Amino acid sequence: MAKINFGGTKEEVITIKEFPLAKAKNILKKEVVAIIGYGVQGPAQAMNMKDNGIKVIIGQAKEDKFYWNKAKKDGWIPGKTLFPIEEAVKRGTIIQYLVSDAAQMLLWPKVKANLKKGDALYFSHGFSIVYSKQTKVVPPKDVDVIMVAPKGSGTSVRRNFVDGSGINSSFAVYQDYTGRALERTLAVGIGIGSGFLFPTTFQMEVFSDLTGERGVLMGALAGMMEAQYNELRKHGHTPSEAFNETVEELTQSLIRLVGENGMDWMYANCSATAQRGALDWRHHFRKAVEPVFAKLYKSVATGKETAIVLKANSAPDYKTKLNAELKEMRESEMWQAGAAVRALRPEKRKK
Predict the structure, then answer these.
(1) Are 192 and 217 contained in the same domain?
(2) Are residues 26 and 54 in the same domain?
(3) Which one of the listed residues 125, 235, 237, 284 is annotated catalytic?
(4) What is the C-alpha separation between 158 and 176, in angstroms, rounded?
(5) Mean pLDDT by 10 residues, the chain (351 residues)
(6) Which range of residues forms the domain containing residue 343?
(7) What is the DSSP string of 181-200?
(8) Known catalytic residue: 235?
(9) Does the model's pTM come out above 0.90?
(10) Does 207 reside within a domain?
């Protein structure tokens, strides 16, 4: 492992230099990686490993026509590389359990029944293992239990792989039955296209992931955007102006500068007026949201958030309610204005 200084704290990370693809392929040469679930992460991780020359098969419920047909469209062949879930588990040696968290709970009995001694049970999220009292996902003692968690959606995992940039991932070993759990974990991590891998635990991964999704990555970002947009509209700003100053400039300009060289560099490359105001007001916003993040983290750590997710996502009308919530967001003035703004981007007009 390479030791990298992260803001004064030295951490060990794995890069493709220390663990090249050739080494990963050699470790996995006798393995069959069975991807269970062809929804969000499944397609990306499967296609990346396939392109890297690793033997991959897909396990997908045949009665779920949408995802079964999606796998077929992507080139997976029924009876050869595409199988019902139980058969894929039987055929695989590394079982990548990539269905949704709620589905992992529901499908666990049939997956567990088909695991074999020495298999590796792989997750990309610590949810089911950490909250096993709620999910009832308790692996048998004679399998490895491992995790590689890409820090991005399945779309990003595939897109970054195709463009050669890769995506960073965390990794953990929860149970090492074979004595090979770590090397299997790292090999798959490199195989799915990770740019670098950093160690964590199942618990730390799920706590940080659930907090991040509800916080800065999605929940807080959407809520703050809505608050600012509404305030501008309340004072007579037009929808286009409010959206451009709230969302468009962030996503099309500023966040790209942050991604390139950091927040301070973005500040240094903005106007002096923007610099001064941002530097002053960031403290106000931090103080305002610190209590919210404390409440959020406690809700994650105590399992309250997990209980909400499992109950909601297991309900028979979940998709109907989800679509209604997304429809409300999509049809709000703010995001209708956003659709109009996006249509005016130069790259859209060229098509």
Answers:
(1) no
(2) yes
(3) 125
(4) 29
(5) 86 90 96 95 95 97 93 96 98 96 93 98 96 95 97 90 90 98 97 93 96 95 97 97 95 90 92 93 96 97 94 91 96 96 77 55
(6) 212-350
(7) HHHHHHHHHHHTTEEEEEE-
(8) no
(9) no
(10) no
